Amino acid sequence: MQLLINIDVDDLARAEAFYRDAFGLAAARRFGDAVLEMTGAPVPFYLLRKDAGSEGAAGSARDYRRHWTPLHLDIVVEDLDAALARALAAGARAEGEVREAAWGRIVQLADPFGHGWCLLQFLGRGYDEIAS
After folding, report:
1. Chain centroid to CA 129
2. 45-101 confidence digits (pLDDT tens)
3. Tell me, what's the pLDDT at 42?
4. pLDDT at position 71, please?
5. Half-sphere exposure of 33 (CA within 13 A, CB side)
6. What's the CA dihedral at 26, 31, 4, 91 to 10 degrees?
7. Can you give the chain as a three-state secondary structure string?
8. Residue 126 CA: distances (Å) to CA of 23, 71, 77
């Protein structure tokens, strides 16, 4: 199995800058003016330019306000405070405070396109601290 991450955005240049500055990804390949592949994570990210108001899933109109979805992505970082500062400077919005758990630290964010993300910093043995 191969995993690809596809993210709808309404402004490809702004998305490229955000994902570069917030998460350290790099532009790799462009597919016309509507798709950009970004690398630097274990899987490639594809930024897909889709206009606000265009048809999304099940006939609903796309919008880029903050939205809830039962799927989000976690980015594991070595230094949560530094990663959070980079993401905020790039245009992310923190959604709550940094929380601590037996396995590490976590903070929730929203990117400029309404998508939810979490930054995680594992401490000790990470999830093995709570696994049975």
Report:
1. 25
2. 999 999 999 998 888 899 899 988 888 899 999 999 999 999 999 999 999 999 999
3. 95
4. 85
5. 2
6. 50
7. CCCCEEEEECCHHHHHHHHHHHHCCEEEEEECCCEEEEECCCCCEEEEECCCCCECHHHCECCCCCCCCCCCEEEECCCHHHHHHHHHHHCCEECCCCEEECCEEEEEEECCCCCEEEEEEECCCHHHHCCC
8. 21, 21, 12
Q: What are phi and psi of 42, to 5 degrees?
A: -60, -20
b/e per residue 58-97 (b: at least 16 CB within 10 A): eeeebebeeeeeeeeeeeebeebeebbebbeebbbeeeee
The structure tokens listed for 46 are 């594809």
Q: What's the pLDDT at 5?
A: 96
Query: For residue range 18-31, what is the model confidence (pLDDT) as tens digits?
Result: 999 999 999 999 99
CB burial readout 20-46, b (16+ within 10 A) else e: eebbebeeeeeeeeeebbbeeeeebbb
